[in-house]
Amino acid sequence: MEVDPPFPAGQPVPQPPVASGRPSPWPVVAAVLTGCWTVGVVVVGQTGGWLADQVVLASGLDRVVWLWPATVLFTVLLVGAPALTLALLPRSAAVRAAGRAWLAAALVLGALGLLRAIPPVHHEAYLAALAATAGLAALVLRMLGRRTAAAPPWAPAAAPPAPAATMPATPGTSAPAATLLGAAGGLALLLPWVWVGALGGLLETVLAGVAATAVGVLAGELLDGAFWSRLAVGEPPRPAPSVLVGGLAAGVALLLLAAGVGQSGAQLPLLLTLPPAGFALAALHLAARPPAATRHHRPASPVGPTPGAVDRAGPTPGAAAGGPEAAVRPAVRWLVGLGVLGPLALTDPEEITLVLAGTRDVPFWVAAAAGAGLAVAAVLAVAYGVLLTRGRRPSRRVAGVTTGVLLVAVGVVAVGAGQPGLHGERLFVVLREQADLAGVPATTGRAGRDARVGEVHRRLVATAERTQADLRRDLRRLRLDHTPYYLVNAVEVEGGPLVRAWLSRRPEVARVLVSQRVRPLPAPAGRSRGTAPAPAGPEWNVRMLGADRVWSQLGVDGSGIVLGSSDSGVDGGHPALAGGFRGGDDSWHDPWNGTRAPTDEGGHGTHTAGSAVGRGGIGVAPGARWVGCVNLDRNLGNPAYYLDCLQFMLAPFPPGGDPFTDGRPARAPDVLTNSWGCPSIEGCDPGVLRPATAALDAAGILVVAAAGNTGPYCGSIDDPPAPYADVLTVGAVDRQRKVTLFSSRGPVPGAAKPDLVAPGDEVLSAMPGGGYATLSGTSMATPQVAGVVALMWSANPALVGDLPRTRQILRDTATPAVATYASATQTCGGDRNITGAGLVDAYAAVRAARG
User: Fold this and answer.
1) How far apart are CA 588 and CA 645, in angstroms?
2) Is 719 a catalytic residue?
């Protein structure tokens, strides 16, 4: 039967409106300016936030919890406002699509950035929160995308598609091939991290993988089919302009996403590697489209598409989930997910720090991986842009082979050139009961001191053996690797948050701390060497103390006294130190690397040992002998490593020996120099090493420790062991006897700190390899005070082990030092909390010790 024609005969068929004139360029200009503004705000905000974190860390101040939440919220405001304007006002569909994507990415940055309020030490908790937040954000974006894609019930029915344009078919890349190429790009971005990085613990690694997956899914929702279709230039899309425009818009969105992924420092390499990948994704979007011959096209108007036509007619067919335009979504997920996996799983954010920046350590290798990732992303952008938009495109088989080759390469590099295995943090379990050392006889002199050390060692070991028995049995049953200690009744255990929760509930456990472990490097950090020549005579600091007069006028050089150095090590072959090594099989311990002879890569320990006992004019007590231990090989330690060395000093043992059964208390050194502190970032709390220094004090072993270099702030003597009352804490002065601004100061609760000051500014001493160098710090001042004690006890052996009398002599004979202040109002409660008792006077102290 006949039906009425849709339009009466003789009436013209309505035609779609045609834009008059050229489209206004101002929306495009606004988009470019907004993109540049966004890049600047994000880069400055993220870099500045990390630097602020590092300044706080280096200054010894408490972590600023609100720093990152405030930074990201401020960034969201600065970026979100112009992005919202682009999303609402321009008539250009492409500009509005870019604005919407940037606005969504800015809001995602705000949500993810708030997670940095979680302390970095709890990395597993952060990764779990990141995975949950990213997954929730992806779900919200998916729901919003579906609502946007659905036509409202009052919308007119879609017109039947126009006949297919008559044009030759060109070979296309299928959607599965595009997905494989996205995975190949992600593996290429992962490759540098597999080479230079190392995995953490098992749970940490699993959570990093889950978080990376969630971030990849989130990226797929941010850069969905509607985003790419609206940014395509021309219909059918012209390849080069579409890749350029789509890549720029996607790059800005990926920059915002990258800024929210990872703890402070881990996001910085992603700012370099993810944005250039936007161009590769733009090319993959074109490759995932069906061949031109099978697509339907609307007739193009003479002046191009009508501005805003896409928005008025709804999304481009297929832009919703499941359509051909959305075929690039899996490629986005794979590329971004694998791209962020490297920084999340193969680096520890606490190690991306300026504390390690002086050598070829983690920050150097992270920068190398970021640079390599940037190069890889650029190559991907160019290669995919050329291969997928011109000429014959790769087939699914070619894409699969490429992905397979890269997957094998990642595995080979991880096992070969990389650092295979798990290298997570450990747990430091402090038991409730600590040894009772009351009543240990306070005998002095060599024989009396040795008897005290033996009694203290016996009580400590007995307490640890008795109270740790059940815990150690359960740890063996669960096959959890562990190391017991007795100087502090504690056990270091392999495990993560679940093990920590189990340990915390045990009745014999007082608290469980995270014992930080620095991850291995792809190559040694390199040895620090000095370039200064050997001094012609006693150095200025030695003369300021009067130590040279002690040698020449009193005939005392420290002979008969043994000094213990816990530091980065000691170069046992240095001319100024080789002759002073005590020798034997119990004078060197290296819990970091297991070396059997004195060695030092960092140089800090060689320098401090030289200032204490070095010969040739650099050391205060050149006649004393020394023993050494490595507790700070890479400038980041943990409670267990610090305790390893303090325990070795109480009762030295041979290599491979058991400290509990093979310790030799009679071989304990007399005085210990400790130019280190254990801040919270390394896992210490204020009292964790308190039982250790109390035990050494009870044994008659004098512990000398650096005040720290976090001045001129008041109350900056806060990292163990410097605040402890039974530790002789040393600040630093310059050549004018003024306390240096970097020298930490009191007040300290329950004690007056520092105890004394000594020269610590531009001090010349030994460095590995036989050279010399000038360094500054309270680290340089501390060994000189230990050297003065060695001179005192050498002059009067009856004082050995008499710690109260030794401290009193040092205070009574000290000379005035000049206090310095951060400001006129920051006097730290008086000069006593800045200068201590004053500047050590070796000559006067030795004379008083003899008297």
Assistant:
1) 10
2) no
Question: Do 707 and 650 share a structural domain?
Answer: yes
How far apart CA 693 and CA 643 sit, in angstroms, is: 10
519-540: pLDDT as tens digits: 999 998 878 889 999 999 999 9
Rounded to whole angstroms, how far apart are CA atoms 742 and 820?
Answer: 10
DSSP state for residue 737 in the 8-state scheme = S
End-to-end Cα separation, the chain, in angstroms: 131
Bridge partner residues of 773 (DSSP):
765
Tokens describing residue 591: 């819990």
Closest CA to 717 of 690, 683, 677: 677
Q: Which two tokens stand for residue 155?
A: 């919308």
Question: E strands within 106-207?
Answer: 198-199
At 701-741, the pLDDT tens digits run 999 999 999 999 899 999 999 999 999 999 999 999 999 99
Three-state DSSP at 221 gives helix
Q: Of 423, 482, 589, 604, which one is the catalytic site residue?
A: 604
Q: Over 94-108, what HEC string results?
A: HHHHHHHHHHHHHHH
Place of tokens 């410097």: 722
Encoded amino acid at 229, one letter: S
Higher-confidence residue: 164 or 473? 473
d(CA 437, CA 460): 8
Structure token pair of residue 469: 């028995």
Report CA-CA distances (Å) from 145 to 150, 192, 317, 430, 589.
Answer: 9, 35, 14, 52, 62
Q: Which residues neighbour 675 within 8 Å (Cβ) at sequence distance 6 or greater?
A: 567, 604, 608, 705, 706, 777, 778, 779, 780, 782, 783
Claim to verify: residue 617 and residue 719 sit in the same structural domain: yes
Regarding pTM above 0.85, the answer is yes
Token output for 533: 């020549």
Reported as a single tens digit per residue, the pLDDT across 430-487 is 999 999 999 999 999 999 999 999 999 999 999 999 999 999 999 999 999 999 999 9
Nearest to 631 by CA among 614, 648, 619: 648
Structural domain harbouring 474? 426-515
How would residue 343 be classed by pLDDT, with cut points 50, 70 and 90? very high
Would residue 465 count as lying in a domain? Answer: yes
8 A C-beta contact, residue 191 and residue 410:
yes
Active site residue 589: no
Side chain identity, residue 268: L
- Cβ atoms of 624 and 790 within 8 Å: the answer is yes
How many separate domains does the chain show?
Answer: 3
Catalytic residue of the set 53, 567, 761, 831: 567
Whether residues 735 and 793 share a domain: the answer is: yes
Owner of token pair 């610590």:
760
Q: In the annotation, is 567 catalytic?
A: yes
Which tokens in the block code for residue 540? 């200025």
Tell the residue number behind the tokens 């604005």, with chain if given: 99
Residues 509 and 603 in one domain: no
Identify the active-site residue in 348, 779, 794, 841.
779
DSSP 8-state code for residue 516: -
pLDDT, tens digit, for every residue of 742-763?
999 999 998 889 999 999 999 9
CA distance 194 to 189: 10
Residue 680 is predicted with a pLDDT of 87
Same domain, 362 and 259: yes
Contact between 528 and 601 under an 8 Å Cβ cutoff? The reply is yes
Phi, psi (5° rounding) for residue 593? -115, -10
